[in-house]
Design a protein that fits this description.
The chain is globular. Strands 1-2 form a two-stranded parallel sheet. It has two domains: 113 residues, Glycogen Phosphorylase B (Rossmann fold, 3-Layer(aba) Sandwich), CATH 3.40.50; 39 residues, no CATH class. It is mostly helical. It has seven helices and two strands; from the N terminus they run αβαβααααα.
Length: 158
Amino acid sequence: PVVKIDPAGLPQRPNIHWMGQRRYDELPAFLAGWDVCLMPFALNASTRFISPTKTLEYLAAGKPVVSTPVRDVAQQYADVVPIAATPAEFVAACEGILAWDDSARLSFRASAALVVAGTSWDRTAAAMQDLLGRFDAGRVDRTTGVEESDTALDEAQA
């Protein structure tokens, strides 16, 4: 979090550790000691259209995640990622996860694994290819980007 900001302005507490940049191959060792992965993104113009890769990385590691309501996280992962709009909700979500018993942890890991299994670059590429095919076939309005229904398409061709 120290890109384009002065690290001295970050909160300083005994339980907060600013680790700085680490090599990618070191990350599993860091994650192993985490109980909850935090994604406390500010909601502003810079984060309005982000799709944090950390969400899937944390889920793939079997770690629970709490996030602020970043649009992509809230739309795609709210079934497995608690979305917290206020500081109190964020703390409550973290405390709830910390109170999980072994059964709840196993259930979460199974759900997270299903979410991760449903994503891949191959699936993303296939979905994009399908969308482009519908666009080329005239099924998507070139000015609005909205897909026409079969009925509207049939009427237009009649």
